[in-house]
């Protein structure tokens, strides 16, 4: 099965996992009255919806380039990653703001709606089990495609965050029972809000990282030094005597890389066939490291010294 097939199949299973977690989360909220659980359920519901979009994009990216889109459909994959990053970011911000207001109301009024912690503990255990299984499944699928799927990598982060949040909520409500009849009993009514705020801060870096990477891809920023270090030593030996590699530019959209090689031909003249052979050899080297890629090889004596860093 090719990468698109593996990705689409995996995302279909993940979709149903999100649906299950959303239903359980919203149902548990009805019994527990915990906003932390409600936010978790809503997040899973939105994730399920976004997964439907992701499946369609996965199929679209697998299509061959067209005349109107000569470099393929990879930008849709990056847009999906950006959307998913914004979703995770938005959920964390929403959770942080809503629970901050809840704590503020408690400080001002001295009262807050009671939360049924018993059902939350069972919910937490179930969510951690589901998220752990989904995480392991996604990790296995990522391994099958050599970690080339940006969408699956993003979902792996999202599921990991979900497991951490759900597990932490359960642990807190389990421990809160020991605070009853102590000097810290005043914390009990807002325990879920406090843990949500702590987790929001702890997990905030993940969506920021996703958004940063997606933004760098959309502005075609060359930040792929590791790939350049792999490719360059393999290209240099195939260049004719007197030829030099002036520059290697590497950009990425989703799983697809875009390579530009600038080769200085010096004063050595080659036939068109020899030039095409060099181009084909470089493209084969690139394909061995980046199966989803487009490569341009330009022979020019012009330097890139006037480019700004």
Name of the CATH class of the largest domain: Mainly Alpha
Count up the domains. 2
Overall form: elongated
Going by CATH, what is the homologous superfamily of the largest domain? Cation efflux protein transmembrane domain
| Number of alpha- plus pi-helical segments | 9
Class based on secondary structure composition and strand pairing: mainly alpha
CATH names the topology of the largest domain as: Alpha-lytic protease prodomain-like
What number is the mean pLDDT? 83
Number of strands: 3
User: How do the strands line up in the largest sheet?
Assistant: 1-2-3
- How far is the N terminus from the C terminus? 41 Å
Summarize this structure as a short list of keywords or feature phrases.
mainly alpha, Alpha-lytic protease prodomain-like, Alpha-Beta Plaits, 2 domains, 9 helices, elongated
Describe the protein in words.
This protein has 2 domains: 3-218, Cation efflux protein transmembrane domain (Alpha-lytic protease prodomain-like), CATH 1.20.1510.10; 225-299, Alpha-Beta Plaits, CATH 3.30.70.1350. Helix 1 (3-32) packs antiparallel against helix 2 (35-61), helix 3 (74-109) packs parallel to helix 5 and helix 5 (150-176) runs antiparallel to helix 6. The protein has helices at residues 3-32, 35-61, 74-109, 117-144, 150-176, 191-203, 205-218, 225-235, 272-289; strands at 244-253, 256-264, 293-299. Strands 1-2-3 form a 3-stranded mixed β-sheet. Strand 2 (256-264), helix 9 and strand 3 (293-299) form a beta-alpha-beta unit. The longest helix has 36 residues, at 74-109. By secondary structure, the chain is mainly alpha-helical. It is a multi-pass membrane protein. It is found in: Membrane. This is Putative Co/Zn/Cd cation transporter (Cation efflux family). InterPro entries: Cation_efflux_TM (IPR058533), Cation_efflux_TMD_sf (IPR027469). GO terms for molecular function: monoatomic cation transmembrane transporter activity.
């Amino acid at each position: 099965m090719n990468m698109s097939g593996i990705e689409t199949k995996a995302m279909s299973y993940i979709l149903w996992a999100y649906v299950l977690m959303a239903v359980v989360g919203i149902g548990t909220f009805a019994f527990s009255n915990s906003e932390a659980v409600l936010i978790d359920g809503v997040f899973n519901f939105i994730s399920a919806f976004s997964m439907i979009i992701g499946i369609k994009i996965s199929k679209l990216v697998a299509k061959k380039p067209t005349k109107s889109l000569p470099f393929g459909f990879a930008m849709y994959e990056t847009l999906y990653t950006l959307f998913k990053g914004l979703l995770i970011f938005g959920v964390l911000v929403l959770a942080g703001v809503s629970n901050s207001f809840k704590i503020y109301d408690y400080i001002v009024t001295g009262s807050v709606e009671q939360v049924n912690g018993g059902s939350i503990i069972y919910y937490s255990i179930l969510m951690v089990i589901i998220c752990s299984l989904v995480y392991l499944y996604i990790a296995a699928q990522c391994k099958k495609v050599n970690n080339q799927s940006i969408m699956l990598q993003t979902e792996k982060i999202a599921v990991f965050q979900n497991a951490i949040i759900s597990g932490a909520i359960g642990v807190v409500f389990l421990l809160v029972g020991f605070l009853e009849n102590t000097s810290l009993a005043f914390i009990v009514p807002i325990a879920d809000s406090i843990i949500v705020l702590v987790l929001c801060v702890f997990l905030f870096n993940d969506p920021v990282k996703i958004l940063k990477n997606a933004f760098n891809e959309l502005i075609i920023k060359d930040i792929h030094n590791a790939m350049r270090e792999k490719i360059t030593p393999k290209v240099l030996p195939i260049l004719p005597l007197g030829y030099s590699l002036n520059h290697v530019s590497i950009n990425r959209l989703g799983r697809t890389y875009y390579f530009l090689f600038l080769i200085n031909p010096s004063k050595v003249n080659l036939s068109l066939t020899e030039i095409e052979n060099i181009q084909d050899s470089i493209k084969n080297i690139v394909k061995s490291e980046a199966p989803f890629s487009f490569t341009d090889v330009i022979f020019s004596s012009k330097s890139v010294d006037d480019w700004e860093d």
